[in-house]
Amino acid sequence: MNAPASTMQARPVSAPARALRIATYNIHDTVGTDGRRSAERIADVIGELDADIVALQEVPLGGSFAPNALPILREATGMDAIAGPTLDTPERRYGNAILSRLPIRATRSLDLSFGTREARGALDVDVSLDAGVGARPAADGAQRALRVVATHLGLTARERRAQIRALIAAFDTPRMPVILMGDLNEWFVWGQALRMLVTHFRAAPAPRTFPSRLPMFALDRIWMHPADRLLDVQVHRSMRARVASDHLPLVARIAWEHYW
């Protein structure tokens, strides 16, 4: 069983001069637990998070099936919005997205599809840390950046293992800190997919996020390398969040000014 979110920290917080807030949120096609579709309500929850970077899963991106939620989220939050569709047909465009207050330097898409299973992928971006509020130039003049990988893994153990192998193989920027976050769909605390991730990332706190009305499973995760920059991880449990989606958002703080 997972401990309550309020007691879980990746390491003792040392009050850094500045911390970034990051979050991951499966928005369930903007359909809430009351059966109502509302991108505006999702935007309200994102506003509650006060995060600098937000990874989103199950985002409707247009087509005849559902309207594109990303322009609504962009306008409501004032954040840059990057789409990472995993399904792209005239009827339905759907997948991952990243919202960011910080400038996006580069964007990549990773295809994580497995056989005939539902198409999956990861949205992989480099975020500049030199333009944030209060940011100071690095002592050596180097540009500081953070790599953020947002993903939504498959429903079977076999495909998750293949997808984790593909993700780890893609982490080829050793001098750039990496955050992997999203809905990993791993129901078991010591599932093999999670054990594989520990070979690259140190195990991180995992509060329960699903289902949002009465969370029982830690499906949503935030991992970081180097792990000591991850200060804490908590689940966001507002009344609005309990209704807006079938997942609760997961929020973390990462230290950067003492490290970059």
From TrEMBL:
Pfam families from the UniProt entry: Exo_endo_phos
Keyword Coiled coil included in the entry's annotation: no
All residue ranges annotated as the Endonuclease/exonuclease/phosphatase domain in the record: 24-247
Alphabetized SUPFAM superfamilies for the sequence: DNase I-like
Coiled coil: none
GO MF, one example: endonuclease activity
UniProt entry keywords in alphabetical sequence: Endonuclease, Hydrolase, Nuclease
Annotated protein name in UniProt: Endonuclease/exonuclease/phosphatase family protein
Organism: Paraburkholderia bengalensis
